[in-house]
Amino acid sequence: MKVSTDSLILGSYVPLEEVSSVLDMGTGSGLLALMLAQRAPTAQVDAFDADPQAVAQAQANVAASPWPSRIKVEQACVSDWQGAYHYQRIVVNPPYFSGQLDSSSQQRQLARQGQVTPMAWLECALRNLALDGQLYWVLPVSQTELWGEIARGLGLKNCRTLQVKTTARKPVKLMIQGWQRGTPSEVVVEQLVIHAQGGDYSEAYRQLTGAFYLAGQY
């Protein structure tokens, strides 16, 4: 199962204390769903994806995991999917390369470019989000203004932001942002540098993601 850095950081960062229900939108191989099930040992984790091959892979990965009874993966489009109940946490690592890349592989192109708009992703999240729930996404900096504008238009408020830099001297590359319906008591803004000077992973990155690496396998 291919592990992307953005999904790894998102799955490690989302707060899951006392969370009993989680939704992974556009799950792909099921990586985020598996990470969230590991971090929230009593939570039900639902996930969906429009790509039947991705769903088959995710289902196989779930079946081989320690948590097959707590993770359910379905095939559905973002525009149509409706959960059986509302979720305390919703996560999404959307196909955000639209208009930037072309691929000779139809499946790779679908994963990169997607077939639905940011509005459709956020409307799906909103109709499945518990009243006290939170939505978390990971996006490149170039996409966050658009998604944030739509989220605010739907009545969501930004409660948490993690700015991700490859190295300390480079600009912010990715942003993980949390959103909720009500006005947050505080807005948390943090920064993560992935690589320390010399190219090794930073201590902050190791501490955040360490639960998902075998000992010594960074």
Helix coverage percent of residues?
25-40%
> Structural class of the helices, strands and pairings?
alpha/beta
Radius of gyration (CA) equals 17 Å
- Shape from CA axes? globular
Tally of helical runs: 7
Q: Count every beta strand, where a strand is a DSSP E run of 2 or more residues.
A: 8
Order of helices and strands: HEHEHEEHHEHEEEH
**SS strand fraction:** 25-35%
Low-pLDDT segments, ≥5 res: 97-114
The largest beta-sheet arranges its strands as 3-2-1-4-5-7-6-8
Q: What summary fits the major beta sheet?
A: 8 strands, mixed
Mean pLDDT: 89
C-alpha end-to-end distance: 16 Å
Keywords:
about 220 residues, alpha/beta, eight-stranded mixed sheet
What does it look like?
The protein has 218 residues and is of the alpha/beta class. It is built from seven helices and eight strands; from the N terminus they run αβαβαββααβαβββα. An eight-stranded mixed sheet has the order 3-2-1-4-5-7-6-8. The model is unreliable at 97-114 (pLDDT under 50).
